Structure formats: structure tokens, C-alpha cells
Amino acid sequence: MDLDINKRLEEENKKEMAKALEQEERAKQQPKKVSDKKFLFIAAAVITIFIAFSLSDGFGLYEQAKVTGSAIAYTLQDLHRENLAGNLDKEVGIIYNGFSVVKYEGLWWTRKETDDRILEFPLHFNPLDVEEIKITGDLAPEFNKGEDVFIAINPGVKDKFYTLALSELSFNVVKGLDRRPVGSCISEDPACETREIISCQQNPQQKPVIELVIGNESKIESFGTCIKVTGQEYDLVKAVDKLLYRWYRVME
């Protein structure tokens, strides 16, 4: 694995995400509204970057072998070591279902060991923050078939938290499901000319779909071949993180 290439990919991804959020914030301060098309392009660009990052083995940055000597690994190893020894305050580190979860550079990193590697993945919230979010329903077996999982984007939404939640989901779905996230649209729009129109309600071929919805109640609903994640502002990100912790088998 070429760590230099992966670091550059990570840096480019962070810059693009920051740029998207900055554009969103500037748009709110301008009298003229940003078009749905422009926002969708921003959201789609973010997802595309995450997909490219994952498919190019960018996730190798978070798969640290036990002999790895990168600066990130050593820093996280030190934090996890102190956490497992009970030396960290709960604002910095927790043990959840036997997993060490520590806060590093504003994100919560969970350490999960397998037979041949150590997986460390970052999320915005820790498991305690998302315990109250309910998951209901059951998925049909068809959800687990095939390589692709369609991430359904609402082209009418202009919200930085929605974009952040999409990014959090797309960045981790490869490792959580071992699948490939595919950006799609829930309705027709000029910005969606090259994207498949698919949603939980509009899915005649029963393809695997994850749809994010802005709503007052934070929840995760599973039915058929769809997972619908609902929330608003940071609660939407929390709901996505709850789903990801379940996929990583950190939470029951």
C-alpha cells in the first residue's frame, strides 16, 4: 500500500468537503438562493470522492497492521492503550461492548481487531451518543445481494448537515457492508441526468437502497430492500453513525 498516495487522497477529500461546506455557508448569507442543481452537484461530488477514495485502497489508512509505523497509527495506539488501561476521561475515551473508542482530532475512532489486522474507523459521535436512536423493521435478503448499494440523494435539499451525513455514510459503507456506494437521486432533476432515479418508494427492481430524510424524529427504518435514516442537523449524522456502529458490530 502506498501511504503517500493515500494521504494525498485523504487531504484532497478533506479539502473538497471543507469547500462544499464553505460554499453552503456562503450561500445562506447571500440574498440569492443557490439552486438545487448546484447543491446536488456538491453532494454528488462529495460522494464521488469518497467512492474513489475507497476503491483506490484509501481505506488502508484505517487498516493498521500490528507492525505499522505511521504517525497516525502510533497516536491512536497510544490513546487506545491509555483508554484500555482506564486512564482517559469519558470525554476522551470510552470502552463500549469491549471496543476501545477514543476522540482524536475531533472524531471518535473505534479500534476493532481481526485475525490479521487492526481496523480503526472514525465517526463524528461515539456509541453512547447514539444509543437512544431506534432501529425498527427487517431487511429482505435481497438487500445483501450484489456489489452496489444505492445512496439516494434528495436534489431538493440544501443543507450542510445532510451533506455531512451523506459523506459519513458513503465513506464507511465500503467497510461496514463491504459494498460499493452508488450515488443516485430520489426524483427527476436537471442535475440527475446521469444518475439513476431510485428511492425507498420508487424501487421496482428491489435494489439495495439507503435513503436519508430530514425529519424531526431521529430514527432508522428497515423494510424490503431499503434503509431509511431520518433526522435533522447533527441528529441526522447521529442516526447515520448508529447505523454504521451496527454494521461494524460495535452496537447490538
Question: What do you see in this structure?
Answer:
The protein has 252 residues and is α/β, with parallel strands linked by helices. 37% of the residues lie in helices and 24% in strands. The chain has 5 helices and 11 strands, in the order H-H-E-H-E-E-E-E-E-E-H-E-E-E-E-H. It has a 6-stranded mixed beta sheet with strand order 6-10-11-9-7-8. A 5-stranded antiparallel beta sheet has the order 1-5-4-3-2, covered by helices on one side. A hairpin with a 2-residue loop joins strand 3 and strand 4. The longest helix has 27 residues. It is elongated and about 55 Å long. The chain starts with a helix and ends in a 5-residue tail after the last helix.
What's the short story on this structure?
By secondary structure, this protein is α/β, with parallel strands linked by helices. The chain has helices at about 5-30, 35-55, 70-85, 160-175, 235-245; strands spanning about 65, 95, 100-105, 105-115, 120-125, 135-140, 150-155, 180-185, 210-215, 220-225, 225-230.
